[in-house]
Amino acid sequence: MTNEQKANIVRLRYSGWGYQKISIALDISRDPIRTYCKSMGLDGYAKDLVRKQEAIQMIERINYNVGDGKSKVPQVPLEKEKAIEDALRYFKMI
Questions:
Q1: Whole-number CA gyration radius for the chain
Q2: Exposed (0-12), middle (13-18) or buried (19+): which is 52, by Cβ within 10 Å?
Q3: Residue at 17 is within a domain
């Protein structure tokens, strides 16, 4: 199994795909996919993996740029914010 196939397996498992569906899509036997998924902790119901991944992403979003006081979200000056909005309006993006 190539590294590209392994990456695709992980991506598809986190998208909610089962072993059989992945094996058909990647043209690999189901058993090596199942063995690889078990070794990577991707076994179990695919829907549970999707929920777990969504929870991890939500926690990462909540904790983004939050640290022990060392990192802060940069503040944009009001003039710069207005200039950005004007540019977005000019290009009809908002």
A1: 21
A2: middle
A3: yes
Write down the pTM of the prediction: 0.54
Q: What are phi and psi of 20, to 5 degrees?
A: -65, -45
- 39 lies in some domain: yes
φ, ψ (nearest 5 deg) of residue 82: -65, -40
Match 């003039």 to its residue by tokens.
Answer: 79
Q: Give the number of domains in the chain.
A: 1
Mean pLDDT of the chain: 81
Residue 19 burial class via C-beta count within 10 angstroms: exposed 0-12, middle 13-18, buried 19 and up: buried
- Residue 85 scores a pLDDT above 90: no
